[in-house]
Amino acid sequence: MQLGGIVDWLGGLPAWQGFALLIAAGLVAAIAVREVGDRYLRRLTDRIDGNVDEIVFGGIHTAVYLTVGLAGAYVGTQVYNVSPDIAVPLESGTLSLVIVIWMVTLLRVGRKASAVVTDSRYIDRQIVPILQNVWSAVVAAVGVFLLLVLWDVDVTPLLASAGVAGIIVGLAARDTLANFFGSLSLYLDGTYKVGDYVVLETGERGRVEDISVRSTVIRTRDDILVTVPNAKLSNAAIVNESTPKTKRRIRVSIGVAYGTDIDRLEDVLLEIAGAEGLVLDRPKPRVRFREFGGSALDFELLCWVNNPSQRARVTHELNSAIYKRFRTEGIEIPFPQRDVTVSVTDVPGELFGQPDESPGDPFPADGGAAPSSERRSDGGRDER
Q: Residue 146 in 3-state DSSP?
């Protein structure tokens, strides 16, 4: 029997019998959906890793078979010529109930999913409540809007008021919104996470202590907390020293005197690096001859540490060990020197007991002839 024939057959029945039959059919279909759907859902969720899929599919399953059960009453209002005073409230009430069921279901699914995701080590815990609140606001707004439209409530004034209110709120909370979207962009880009060591454009370097909706808190090496708005961080160049791996290379610059045995120097530096417990064996430490400096041969010791926070400590230990070992080995660490040569002919003769032949003042202050002078044997001068 085709669908048109079923509708004609239902239309020939009394209204109360047809309604009862459609409601019963809806309940039977809902039970079938529940029983059959449970089996397929179990098979589907077993193939997907994690618990989020079980929450999502399991949460909407109840809403699905309730919607199927209520569909019988709605179809009855379309098949039978029921009085408008009864049909309109029955139709709107059925659809309103379906909307409320789905709205509550989606809100509950969002809360459960966010609770599970918060415990995941792959997703930042700070951003999950933000997304959950946005999800709840969107679902509630769409549900209320559909209910108002369904009951023929004019939403134009509400939309206009909401638009004006949105402009006012946007202007008043411009910085807050900028920081909010900045936090979202930082999360989606994976710029950093709590525990990473970062270097900001302004030069601050430290560990990320907290990431909130408005700002990021960084603890510097001086144990000072620096709070930076997310809007600035999202538009700045940030060096994350903890990604893609936590180990970092350090550079120790050394200058030795010309004439030093550079092969022996390289062996000494590698021995010092190998003796330091915080220096990693892989990658191996290495020594590089960088340039011929003005006062020394410039070398660089390159080695790796397991964490960025160890760079300062390892640099200190290596510098101390290098200085002590160089003193033992007799390796000279030069410092800039300048030789200054003084010529006697370029210095006034009075400093060396020689006559000063500098001419007198050719232009006396009184406008007369230049006064004569008589030199003494001791190099002095008697004015007349």
A: helix
